[in-house]
Design goal:
Blueprint (H helix, E strand, L loop, with lengths): L1 E8 L2 E7 L7 H9 L18 E7 L6 E7 L5 E2 L3 H15 L3 E6 L2 E7 L4 E6 L19 E3 L2 E7 L3 E6 L8 H9 L9 E7 L6 E9 L4 E3 L3 H13 L8 E5 L5 E6 L2 E6 L2 E8 L9
Parallel strand pairs: 2-3, 4-6, 11-12, 13-15
Antiparallel strand pairs: 1-2, 1-18, 3-4, 4-5, 6-7, 7-8, 8-17, 9-10, 10-11, 12-13, 13-14, 15-16, 16-17
Length: 287
């Protein structure tokens, strides 16, 4: 049995495991406990499973403390980056250390995070439309190209996203169209599919968001890299002007994205849901 905690960032939920604990088969562990029908169950709720497992190696000797983050997704793959995952990792590390500033090492690079009373903010780096970075199976950036029934713009915000602006996100059958765009031949490594619609009733730059996530292979309640992708694509397409603050509203809450010449930041709430003990399989012996 190992101790685990459950965190979520605006509904994007993760099982958090201290990497100092031995999990012989991380892939099998994630597949088992993230399953939305048979996985980890939250007490007194109908919530089952998770959007991934965060294995976090805390290095307290640094100032600010560092966390090496490995995100294993429900299909057993390892994600390069996850905006809400980084924010949850920072909140967990802040509980362990008392620090309000953390450095989170991901496969996409190191991200600085700041933990406040109600908000965790993380520096997300510079979004890229470069076809080699996204990556794309063509030599030019993919800007407002037609794939299936969506007009998408491809951007990498730590992971690849195909962003489509639509009249109303509620009118899109994302369960049908998501897999088609996610697996389109133009994306050799696949892509997250993020749709956005402008909220005309609220002042400023406010977008509704839905995302079909690669590795989860389903729609999630929130996606941090997707929120950043919306802001980046909106700026590229002239839907917002200059250095702006963009509010993105997925199903699970509200995220704030700030764009500047130095990169982008992502901010929103994080909460610990509960803690429990889970059994892990014994290491396999080779005779």
């Amino acid at each position: 049995m190992i101790h685990v905690e459950k965190y979520h960032g605006t509904g994007n939920d993760f099982i958090v495991v201290d990497a100092a604990l031995t999990v012989p088969d991380r892939r099998a562990f994630a597949i088992k406990y993230c399953d939305r029908e048979t996985g980890i169950s939250q007490p007194d709720t109908e919530t089952t499973g998770a959007d991934g497992v965060l294995f976090l190696a805390l290095e307290k000797q640094y100032s600010p403390p560092r966390v090496v983050m490995t995100l294993v997704q429900p299909d057993g793959s390892v994600a390069t980056m996850c905006g809400n995952g980084v924010r949850c990792a920072a909140a967990w590390a802040a509980e362990q250390t008392g620090a309000d500033e953390l450095m989170i090492d991901t496969l996409a690079g190191t991200r600085r995070a700041t933990v406040g009373d109600e908000t965790v903010r993380v520096e997300m780096g510079q979004p890229s439309f470069d076809p080699d970075t996204v990556p794309l199976a063509e030599e030019s950036p993919l800007i407002e190209a037609s794939i299936d029934d969506l007009t998408v713009t491809a951007v990498n915000t730590g992971v690849p996203h195909a962003v489509a602006f639509v009249d109303d996100v509620a009118d899109v059958d994302l369960q049908r169209i998501g897999p088609s765009v996610r697996n389109a031949s133009v994306f050799p490594e696949g892509a997250n599919v993020t749709i956005a619609s402008k909220d005309a009733e609220r002042p400023g730059h406010v977008f509704e968001q839905r995302t079909f996530e690669r590795g989860v292979e389903d729609e999630t309640a929130s996606c941090g890299t997707g929120a950043v992708a919306i802001a980046a694509a909106a700026r590229r397409l002239g839907r917002i002007d200059g250095s702006e603050s963009v509010t993105v509203c997925p199903e699970g809450g509200t995220l704030e994205v700030t764009i500047s010449a130095d990169g982008t930041t992502l901010a929103g709430s994080v909460a610990q849901s509960y803690a429990t003990e889970l059994p892990v399989a014994e290491p396999r012996r080779i005779s």
